């Protein structure tokens, strides 16, 4: 079994990545990471309704999507930026609409049924103000046919806060 | 009085822009548009906690923010992509975190109290699946001190659908 | 075709009922009303897991449920009390859990596929603070297999406010 | 310091009460319980706008409200019934609108600033389908001026499930 962690954090020493790491420690299988800030992913240009469909885009999107398909399970780790997933993550997911129309990719069949997890982290009443993000991921998973297995909402503001979190015990058996 | 419409749509002939236009027809004052797809806006690199703060970024972000401050009211128009605002819009808003720390910008004081509006548009049970986006904007407005005046959820899938919408009458007196 | 309006309002001259009436004016078929405040409906005593199941309850619940089955479509009209449906409505719906276990009632089969509508009304930023109620109804309809057709959120505080609402035009073709 | 737990469960041997008990074990102070199913609380008759205001109601409501004021902190424990608080709890809270207009009660002043907690429990994807309830409580607390301190979402279906929950460790330091 393999788990892919896709991180939407925009900096090193990320609290959301720390939480994801803690959770992954309970994973029985291989764990792989992709940090979107190290990739080049362009905004979608919506050509769903163009006669010739989407123009090909030269960036790292296809490679990340392929990694997602190859993994048995996918964990999306994102800081809560402005009460939603980070722009890195959103830009990545928006482009799924393009991948779905690429017949070579076979997006729908390869993602359907895949277990999905969400870890997010914020500092401003995150337990409540993070809920729209969870609701959004629910819809995303539903639309793709992924299975929403579990989420974790962490509280942290400054670099290093996650390590001192009193919620770490919730992550000890995150996968189990 | 001036209204700035910031559009997060990723294509011309956009349904969300059509709805925004209809709404703006009832605006008593000047209406200005910014289409984010025509701007270059880079993802945020979170340096909030770096000793020297954020590195300056050369793109169009500051200019859009300045236009936002100069307007009396701001309407955010975004298609519902993956049950949230588009990556264009999210990337733009994420960078506010940087602007807020730029003492030359005076972000907080200039945005506080500004009336905000949201128009979104989607095709998959948008009245329900668009609600996390509305909840998210509520938090965004609250955090900045903007006043959440009103929102409109449109239903449309293909280019041209908005023109045939049976909700256009809801927009006739959107500003009034 | 018949529409049953179940009202959870706790007073005559109700704003939510006024909005429901306006909506019903566009219904092509018979319209029937049940006002829960005129019925006696007791709180559920959860005996789902008792050996002998639920004790029979003598009140008007069964009769309202039967009316719901006989109607082709059902509109739930409730004021927004404390950011949720009224206690009248909630008490009524809680008891569905009992009806579902009554083999004489055949609840699941008779409600599945039935179109459902929600009209609510409140005065404190109802467009936003009413959203948890809409999300809750979504889950309720989903669980029963009802189809969530449409909702309307009205704004009104004092008796008579609904009549002066600038949203009445949204109700003109509510059913159509 | 005293904590009042108000339970909206409709049966003995309640899972939500079990979770509340576990949480309360970490409370440094006295813990008091009120089980609404053992009280008589009538539905509200909305007379907010009647010339003479509300007619007095003879039931246990005033007594529970008084206990709420006397406690330093209040924990609302409710099963998730139909994706919301139970009818017992909702009926109780609806009547606050009456208490607020009773000048002898001094509701607003006595509840403002009081820390509030929510524990709920359900069996059908409760982590996601319980979110509207949390959002609703947020609005309730905001309106009264209570402080939303913390919530816990438990998973349990049958009597006894709570005892076997793998989330009990989250409750060990619920108050701390």
TrEMBL record, chains A, B, C, D:
InterPro entries: Flavoprotein-like_sf (IPR029039), FMN_Rdtase-like_dom (IPR005025), ISF_SsuE-like (IPR051796). Residues 1-125 form the NADPH-dependent FMN reductase-like domain. Gene3D superfamilies: 3.40.50.360. Keywords: Flavoprotein, FMN. GO terms for molecular function: oxidoreductase activity. The keyword Flavoprotein applies. The keyword Flavoprotein applies. It comes from the Bacteria. PANTHER family: NAD(P)H-DEPENDENT FMN-CONTAINING OXIDOREDUCTASE YWQN-RELATED (PTHR43278). This is NADPH-dependent FMN reductase-like domain-containing protein. It comes from Jeotgalibacillus malaysiensis.
């Amino acid at each position: 079994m393999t788990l892919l962690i896709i991180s939407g954090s925009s900096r090193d020493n990320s609290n959301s990545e720390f939480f994801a790491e803690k959770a992954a420690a309970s994973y029985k299988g291989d764990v792989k990471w992709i940090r979107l800030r190290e990739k080049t992913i362009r905004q979608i240009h919506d050509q769903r309704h163009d006669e010739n469909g989407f123009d090909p885009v030269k960036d790292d999107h296809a490679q990340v999507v392929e990694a997602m398909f190859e993994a048995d399970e996918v964990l999306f780790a994102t800081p809560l930026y402005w009460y939603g997933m980070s722009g890195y993550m959103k830009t990545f997911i928006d482009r799924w609409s393009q991948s779905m129309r690429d017949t070579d990719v076979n997006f729908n069949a390869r993602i359907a049924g895949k277990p999905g997890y969400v870890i997010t982290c914020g500092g401003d009443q995150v337990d409540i103000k993070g809920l729209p993000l969870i609701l959004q991921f629910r819809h995303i998973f539903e639309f793709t046919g992924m299975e929403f297995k579990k989420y974790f909402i962490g509280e942290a503001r400054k670099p290093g806060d996650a390590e001192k979190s009193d919620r770490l015990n919730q992550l000890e058996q995150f996968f189990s």
